[in-house]
Amino acid sequence: MTTTTTAYPLLSSIDDPSALRELDRKQLPQLADELRAFLVDTVSKTGGHLSSNLGTVELTIALHYVFDTPYDRLVWDVGHQTYAHKALTGRRQGMSRLRMHAGISGFPKRCESEYDTFGVGHSSTSISAALGMAIAAHLKGEDRKTVAIIGDGAMSAGQAFEALNNGGVADADMLVVLNDNDMSISPPVGALNRHLARLFSGSTFNAARRAGEKMLGVAPSLLEFARRAEEHVKGMLTPGTMFEEFGFNYIGPIDGHDLESLIPTLQNLKNLKGPQFLHVITKKGHGYEQAEANPILYHGVSKFQPEIGILEGKGGGKPTYTQIFGDWLCDMAAADPSLVAITPAMGEGSGMIRFARRYPERYFDVGIAEQHSATFAAGLACEGLKPVLAIYSTFLQRAYDQVVHDIALQNLPVMMALDRGGIVGADGPTHHGVFDLSFLTCLPNMVIMTPADENECRKMLTTAFRHPGPTAVRYPRGTGMGVAIDPELNELPIGRGEVRRQGQKVALLAFGSMLKPALEAAEELGATVANMRFVKPIDRELILELAAGHTLLVSIEENALVGGAGSEVARVLEEAGCTTPLIRLGLPDRFIDHGDQTLLLAEIGLDPAGIVRTVRERLGDEPLLRTVA
Ligand SMILES: Cc1ncc(C[n+]2csc(CCOP(=O)(O)OP(=O)(O)O)c2C)c(N)n1
Ligand SMILES: CC(=O)[C@@H](O)[C@H](O)COP(=O)(O)O
Ligand SMILES: [Mg+2]
């Protein structure tokens, strides 16, 4: 670790924001330089979100410099851009274990620091939360300030608009800072982006800067600032911004890397009453050449050498499930012209870029708009197209009513490709996709599949796509077993599992990713292993057959135990009056922290050793292998 006093003399002297506020304003550019170098160094060693963090260094410094944190509340949206905030709020040393097990979280977390005012990871919650805090302050007679910091990508989501709609007429002193870097993870989409681009048109921005300099250079009084802001900046240069229509006092756009603009503007805004809106322009990846040139690649990174940057296109290893999906999507699109594919702002992460390039007219990136994406898919299905909604399991949570009300209830053939099902690792509890089996299994009409290997995934995707009702294929983050892939587009019989290993006494009923550890555990236990494949409709016949031939059943899934696949197994046994005991293995009723995927699964007992341990504990001294007569 190179966080020595010599490497970062100024940064090392800041243990909390009160020390930052002691600095002379002239020292702040140096602090920004050190902080940026520190971030590149740290993230290159730990992995994490890089380009968004590089873009918010000056904004973070300015906010902590101007506001009396933690008494004043900073509410970050998504939270993937808060590494500078963490480094300035007493966590600089801890960042050598960023996103690692028992280390610093990659997102703000209330239990980690009093400066993390609101837990986050999913986007577009900041204005709602900040409004709640601002109204609470008002009701309690407290004079604290509340600031929401939201990106242009996050601003595109419905919830952000719901909050603006509420906040624009609420009796609350709240500042919304729009950090506009003209990027989501991918290039931004939609009409909001067009509106922001218009505000940022060269002439407007330059004129606004000139006016801002003039206005701020003389450190105007509060009233003078307000008058000039309204008359000369807002009225003259940026008439009719959408945010004003919502009832906010819109200021900007200003240069978000220029501390000399940021600080006086924030100081003045701090004193204004009612809903305030500051539009700042930043560059994703600012100050690190490689990240500026390719902010998508540097959005989320693994370890890399800062002097060289990320080496692309090494490839060669096992394909990820995401790649299996991306290949299947292109193959199926070639075979069926009615296929259309939708992503709520996760085209890269979902493996859809080749498809997007090949079939741009059939590719819909709808922005961070999970609810809309689901209902939009339903609409496409109503008209006979075959929508494939590619969505991370964790983000589908936001579209639950749309899945229930718009897709399942109407029995529409929308296929959901659920990536990142199960424990995702370093992103932690906000991103683990461990509830989907529970919240989808209870829905009538759904068909739910969990592939155990890559080739099975491809077959399930085909099966789902051709099924005339709602389906979900749920696969994990990362690679699978490394099996060969059939080039054909073959289907599987719906609702049928298979026995993969014949053993005795104990039968392990594995769902999806759990087949691999189950097979390994079975070697030691001499157990039977079934690859259940379908959570819904579950293979009733197979379960009862296994129950009849074994003395103990063990269901294993990478999902919450409550309401998951094991619950379905239990239901089948109960309905049949079958008394064979069942142990259900899965995620306990608590949120699982961040850390390495393998390590977390082992901690929960969802690895081969854990499965063996559970079975042995249950059987006590009973011999595992039945003596065959
Ligand atoms: C509800 C939800 N959907 C998708 C994501 C994935 N995601 C994380 S950051 C991001 C882009 C956000 O763009 P913006 O707010 O402009 O921040 P930037 O990355 O540009 O700094 C997306 C799509 C998420 N975290 N939450
Ligand atoms: C902050 C956020 O929500 C995304 O950037 C997410 O971290 C991506 O996860 P993957 O790395 O699994 O694509
Ligand atoms: Mg952005």
Automatic annotation (TrEMBL):
Keywords: Isoprene biosynthesis, Magnesium, Metal-binding, Thiamine biosynthesis, Thiamine pyrophosphate, Transferase
Name of the featured protein: 1-deoxy-D-xylulose-5-phosphate synthase
Class of this enzyme: transferase
Recorded catalytic activity of this chain's protein: D-glyceraldehyde 3-phosphate + pyruvate + H(+) = 1-deoxy-D-xylulose 5-phosphate + CO2
GO molecular function annotation: 1-deoxy-D-xylulose-5-phosphate synthase activity
Annotated metabolic or biological route of this protein: Metabolic intermediate biosynthesis; 1-deoxy-D-xylulose 5-phosphate biosynthesis; 1-deoxy-D-xylulose 5-phosphate from D-glyceraldehyde 3-phosphate and pyruvate: step 1/1
Annotated positions binding Mg(2+): 152, 181
Organism: Rhodocyclus gracilis
Source taxonomy: Bacteria, Pseudomonadati, Pseudomonadota, Betaproteobacteria, Rhodocyclales
HAMAP family named among the record's database cross-references: DXP_synth
Cofactor note: Binds 1 thiamine pyrophosphate per subunit.
Entry function: Catalyzes the acyloin condensation reaction between C atoms 2 and 3 of pyruvate and glyceraldehyde 3-phosphate to yield 1-deoxy-D-xylulose-5-phosphate (DXP).
Domain Transketolase-like pyrimidine-binding, chain residue ranges per copy: 319-483
